Amino acid sequence: MNALELIKSLHLIPHPEGGHFKETYRSHEGVAAEGLPSRFTGKRSLCTAIYYLLQRGERSIFHRIKSDECWHFYAGHPLYIHIIDEDGNYSRVVLGNDYAAGQQFQFIVPANKWFASEPAPAGDFSLAGCSVSPGFDFDDFEIARKAEIIRAFPQHEELLARLCH
Fold first, then answer.
1. How does pLDDT run across 110-128, given as a tens digit for each residue?
2. Cα dist from 87 to 152, 153, 154, whole Å
3. Contacts for 138 with CB less than 8 Å, ≥ 6 apart
4. Closest of 130, 21, 23, 121 to residue 79, by C-alpha
C-alpha cells in the first residue's frame, strides 16, 4: 500500500503538528489529578494509542508532552526522531525494521523532551504508532515557538529552523 491508500483505509486525519493520525485506543479507566505528578492539571486516561503517518516532505514539528511516548514502527521507510533534552543535548533515533542496521522497532521519548520526526530522505512514507501513558491530552502538548527554542538551543539552529513553524 502507498501512503494515500493507508490514510484512506486507516481513516487518518491531519495532525496539528504535521502528518496524519487516528486515535486507536483511549483507556476507559483514568487517574485523578491527585494521583499524577504535579505537571498534570487534571484527570488522565491510563493510556492512549494512535497511528501516525508522515509522507515524504512532511514532518512532525518540534513539540513536547508531559508523558512518556512510546513510538512503534509499522510500515514504510525509516523514520528519524530528533530529541533535544533540557540541557540542549541532541540525539537522533532511527525507527524502522532493519534492526541489523541499528534501526529500532520501538523507542521511548521521555516526558518533557523536545522532539520532532521526519521520514528518512529516501523514503516515501513512514507509518508508526505512538502509545502515551498517562494518556495523551492536548492540555499536555506544547508546540515549540521557533524564535524561543532557537534562542534556548542556538547550537541546533539549522535543525530547529527546519523542523519548527
1. 999 999 999 999 889 999 9
2. 9, 9, 12
3. none
4. 121
DSSP strands (E only) in 15-113: 20-26, 30-31, 44-45, 48-55, 60-65, 68-76, 79-84, 90-95, 106-109
**Cα–Cα distance between 133 and 69 in angstroms, integer?**
7
Query: Model pTM greater than 0.70?
Result: yes
- Phi, psi (degrees; rounded to nearest 5) at 47: -160, 150
The three-class DSSP label of residue 164 is coil
Q: What share of the chain is helix, strand, coil (3-state, %, to 5)?
A: 20, 45, 40
Q: What is the pLDDT of residues 81-106, one digit of tens each?
A: 999 999 999 999 999 999 999 999 99
SS3 78: coil
Structure letter (DSSP) for residue 9: H
Q: What are phi and psi of 22, to 5 degrees?
A: -150, 130
32 versus 17: which is more confidently predicted?
32
